Structures are given as structure tokens and as C-alpha cells.
Amino acid sequence: MSANGTCARPHLTWVENVDKTYTGALLVLGLLLNGLALWVLCCRMRPWTETRVYMVNLAAADLCLLCALPFFLHSLKDTTDTVSCQLSQGIYLANRYLSIGLITAIAVDRYVAVRHPLCARGLRSPRQAVAVCAALWVLVGSSLVLRWALGVQEGGFCFRNPSRQSAGTTLFSLLGFYPPLAVLGFCSLQVVAALAQRPASGPHQAQATRRATRMVWANLAVFVLCFLPFHVVLTVYAAAGRPTPALCYALYVTGKLSDANCCLDAIGYYFMAKEFQEATLLASVPVAKAHRTQDSLSVTLA
User: Fold this and answer.
1) Residue 10: closest CA among 253, 200, 261
2) pLDDT per residue over 252-291, tens digit each?
3) What is the domain count for the chain?
């Protein structure tokens, strides 16, 4: 912790070495996986579906965050609001919370498809998914502008600015996480309950439903594992007023953990579409036809 009460990066040699190795691996894997996912989603898949629209936007947001990550880490050395600091930290924050918003939107879309299938035809379409994604980009961008304006009033936008008082800007971060967490948890539990209640007409449908259920739990677990520790520590950090060294280290470690979501998202893209395609398809057609029509039918969740 610095003398002015802001958290500084740890300067222990072994911590810095681990940090560089972790960040390097994260960048290489994240850029490769998200770049590949974006290429497959945009160029190799047909037709455009709601899930595909959301996943393209999520991959793009994760790529933006990864591209900003080295500049963001470098900007943590700045103690003034330089243009580089404001731009890199702004892009980093915007895409973190855009990713949270898009993951939540996917969960809501999945909930509508499973829990309200009769309404889903009117509520779900690729065009509406594009509108939701556009609204999220605008919302996050607008909130970032407000956060910047509030940061100026509080003495600075950048994290290491010694005159920065972070109460208001921290509130923006917390509001960008806890409401989506509640929505994601509710939708995930509802989808799992709906899948459990769905009668299985054969072993193939039962197997697909089990895989889809595991995927819902896995998506929720990854979200909670990556983002909840950081925001819990951030909540304590905000409540403490003046951070302690232990809080600073906890914020540093949990922040690194939240960055891993970029790679885990990319790994989940394939399964996210495939498992729900199978579960929904097998639930809506006779088992004898399921294998023959799996590649040609329009499915509900992808």
C-alpha cells in the first residue's frame, strides 16, 4: 500500500515473476482461443442464431480486454491521470463489465427459451439479440463516461492517482456485478429445474439433458469463481475506508483471477452451443429422428 492510501502492485521479485508468467500465458491463450472462436463463429457457422450473436459479442469484448491488459498493467505505475492511463483502464473496465452483462444476457435468453418456450418465438430472434448487445455496449460505454466524470470530481480516474477518492467509482463497479449475479443465479436455477422436470423419451435425450445441466452449473461456477472474490474484496475495500496491506494483496490476487474469465469463456463457447442444441433438439423431436435431424433443425437455444 502506498503512503497516500492507494493500493500499489507488490514489488517482491517472485510475485513479479509469477505475475509476468501468468499474464503472458493469459494473453497467449486468451488471444488464440478468442481469436479462433471469433473466426469460427463469424466465418464457419451457419445460420446466425441468438446464442451465436451473444457469443460473438462476448468474444469481441474478451479480445478487447486482453488487448488492453498489458497497457492497463503498465498504467498502474502512473500516479497521474495520463491519457494512456485513462484509455487503457477505461477499456479494461468497460470490457470486464460488458462481459458480465453479455454472460447474463445469455442466461436470460436461455431461461426464456427453456422456461417460456411459447413466448420464446416472439421474444427471441437474432435481430433482437443484436439489439440487446448494442444496448449493452451503449450502457457500459455510458456508465464509463459517467464513471470518468465522477472520477474527475473525486480527484482522479486512474487507480493510483494519490488524490483519488474511490467511493463513487467503486459503487459503479459493484452495481455492474451484483445485480447481474442475482439474475444469472435465478436464470440458471430455473433452467436446471426445467431440464430436470422435462420427461426423457429415451437415453439420448436423457444424456443430452444431463450434459446441458452440467453446462449450466459449469457456466455459473466459472462466473462466480472468476468475479465474486474480486467484488467481495472490493466491497470490503470500499467499506474499510483506508485499505490495509492484506486488502491490497487480496484485491490484486482476485483481480488476476477475474482476468482468467477471458480464457474460460473461450473454452466454454463450443460446449455452450453444442450441449443446448442437443438437449433442446432431443426434447422436441422423436428419438428416432433426433440423429437424422440434428444438423438441420433450427434449435431453441442456439
Assistant:
1) 253
2) 889 889 989 888 887 777 666 555 455 445 444 444 443 4
3) 1
Instruction: Compute the half-sphere exposure of residue 222: CA atoms within 13 Å on the CB side of its CA.
Output: 22
Range of the structural domain that residue 21 is part of:
13-293
Q: Which three cell numbers stand for residue 175?
A: 452495481
At which residue does the C-alpha cell 494473453 appear? 27
* Residue type at 189 in one-letter notation: L
pTM of this prediction?
0.80
Let me know if residue 219 belongs to a domain.
yes
